[in-house]
Amino acid sequence: MRLNSKTTGTRRPAPIKNRAGGEAYSMTAPLELYAAVCTSALSDKFYESSDERLERILRLLPQVKPHFAMKLAVYAREQMHLRTIPVVLAVEIAKLCNEQDYGIYERQMVGKTVNRIVQRADEITELLSYYQTANDRTGTKKLNKLSKQVQKGLSQAFNKFNEYQFAKYDRGTAVKLRDALFLVHPKPKNAEQQIIFNKIADKDLDTPETWEVGLSGAGQGLDNDEEKMEAKKEVWEALVAEEQLGYMAMMRNLRNMLQAGVSRKTIDKVCEFLADPEQVAKSKQFPFRFLAAHREIANISSVDTAPLMEALEKAMDASAANIQGFDRDTSVFISTDFSGSMGSMLSEKSSIHMWEVALVLAMLMRDRCKSVITSVFGTTHQVLNLSNRSGILSNCAKLSVDQRNDIVGSSTNGHLVIQHLLDEKIVMDKVMLFSDMQLWNSGYDSRSFASKWHDYKRFNPKAKLYLFDLQGYGDTPLSTAEQDVYLIAGWSEKIFGILAALERGSNAVAEIEAIEL
Fold this sequence. Notes:
Helix content is about 50%, strand content about 10%. The protein is α/β, with parallel strands linked by helices. The strands form two sheets. The chain has a six-stranded mixed beta sheet. Helix 19 (about 355-365) crosses helix 20 (about 390-400). The longest helix is centred in the middle third of the chain and has 17 residues, at about 225-240. Mean pLDDT is about 90; it is low at about 1-10.
């Protein structure tokens, strides 16, 4: 399916209005579903509630081919590192499979999809919980029967986990692990696993020695605050020495370790672990999480703060190592949306703003380009001249929340990005916009992003435009059916894999369709 075919000799599609009232263009169903899924934490956005997002995704699902929806679920889990939305997709696809009488191939793919997206033991129960809701198995209706393919996929998923992993996520949720075992009836792969399944059934799993358990017990029974802190310090040092902390847990507790005053030996080990490219790759962390960790410790007065911040910079560099950037022969203009709508939080529990997600991704791309100009836009537009020696996270940190509104204001005048290129007569090979795509003109004149891009294409016919959609509202400021206009969606550095695919002549939908189930 070609999303970027030439439109020479054809009429451009008629514009619609986006949620801010600006000129926009609709997407094809596969492209809209891709953008909605890959930017979904199922929490309220600036222009859309989580319920509205879910309703739109469910409305789009029947409009795409079943195999595309299944591959999109796998892509969202394995490449975008999302957890909730792949579960939703798998259950809803299984539901459609029964309602629309899919063929044998599609039915078999449902089970494979379920198995692929379950990568943590608690995702078994989360999937069943959503299955219960989606199929009206609430109140007096018990979850006593599953789709055959959902059952098959979950049965295979049970074989992935050991006792520690099951025990770690055996919680008092509405659908418990024991309920799932009796419902799914997984076949153990060996005698050792049969013992584990028996323990789940008998509620006799060994209590996991997690870092949370060890830390919660530290200092109990002590009245003196200094003694309590010393006890926590000893626990932190033991957890690091015995390699009991996962990557995310370590990043989220850097402040706590600094405040506990852990030893220099412990800090050195933490820095080594955080900066290890292999550990970074295994951690599957979103780039913005490194910024959150960096910001959390930036103001702590400690001789150990700087080494930790440097380790986080190295970790960010490692996460960008596989991004295919552009050499000096290719000029790139990168602009980040700093408007008011980008000030919303990523999710209810997050401390990260959407503009920070955009900024980190933009800086990652900037780091991989040799001929690049960087800017931000809102009510106004401003070029940023940042030193490469400062590091990706340090450059992001310079643009604090307070500075953000002072720089460009809160409107979303994306057309000023292109106006700048025209005014300065700058010839760029590629223009990249990191935004929620809800562009409008606060000056209420005839200038729109689309009209300015068409002007720029007349000035610079070889220019290509890349729209990095970070909110997935379902429209774009320029039709993606036009030549040299591309859309990419998501929050992970893996989005740049789609960029590389575009350079090969492919597109986002085609890359997802190429996934093997």
